[in-house]
Amino acid sequence: MSDPARLRLFQLVSPSLPVGAFSYSEGLEVLVQAGRLTAVEPLEAWLRAELMGGAITLEVAALAPLQALLHNLPEGMGAEAAEDGGAERARQAWNALADLDGWLLAQREAPELRAQQRQMGLSLLLLLADLGWPLPAAGGAGPSTTAAPTLAWPAAFAWAACCLGLGSPAIEEAYLYGWVANQISAAVRLVPLGPTQGQRLQLALAPLIAERAHALAAADPRTLWSGGVGASLAQLQHAELYSRLFRS
């Protein structure tokens, strides 16, 4: 990877990326209040289990297919292209993209998690539009921000990778690294953990993140399964907490 591409990748996983990821715990808050995660050891075991078979693995495996579909979206169509079947190709491309995007969103049982996916996706798409990379309109008539609300976080992340010239397995590594970093950041505030413990845990998980990213980059997401039942139950219970710090 070239130096400029590497720097763009760093920007995509930076905590300063204004998508609001810091405000979500994805069920960790429930587990901490229930006494399930009270130290770094059970937290590490939890994160390793999610990296091996949680819903996050389906999203990571879908990044390359999402990116391929996004690359096929027409950026604009004149009358000649429309007469040559361009409009139909654009419709088919968007239908395939919307189908995979919706399938991924359906893997998140909790309404709060689906809202998180939509909010973060929209925030990233609007940011990219402001930076000069608007998502092509669903109708194929040209670039437009009106299509932004139709994509959730994984597809928006894939679009950012398209705009920044990034590909596999770098985007899979970045997606997993960012997810783990956000989970550890939430745990530092919730458990609580010391910042040094958090950094030590991020380092300890680095080999598994790299291994899973390379494996998932070559996987078909629709042949995988999510074993994150405990995570789903925790996420569903978050809305019932008496008091809470996070939005999920």
Would you write up a description of this structure?
- With 248 residues, the protein is an all-alpha fold.
- The radius of gyration is 19 Å and the shape is globular.
- The longest helix has 23 residues, at 195-217.
- It has eleven helices and no strands.
- The protein has a single domain (3-240), classed as Urease accessory protein UreF, CATH 1.10.4190.10.
Element layout with pairings:
Blueprint: H1 3-12, H2 28-33, H3 40-53, H4 55-71, H5 79-83, H6 86-106, H7 111-130, H8 153-164, H9 170-190, H10 195-217, H11 229-237
Helix pairs in contact: 1-8, 3-10, 4-6, 4-8, 4-9, 4-10, 7-8, 9-10
Mean pLDDT comes to 89
Number of helices: 11
- End-to-end distance: 35 Å
CATH class: Mainly Alpha
Overall tally of structural domains: 1
Morphology: globular
Report the uncertain regions.
76-83, 140-149
The largest β sheet comes out as: none
- The rounded Rg comes to 19 Å
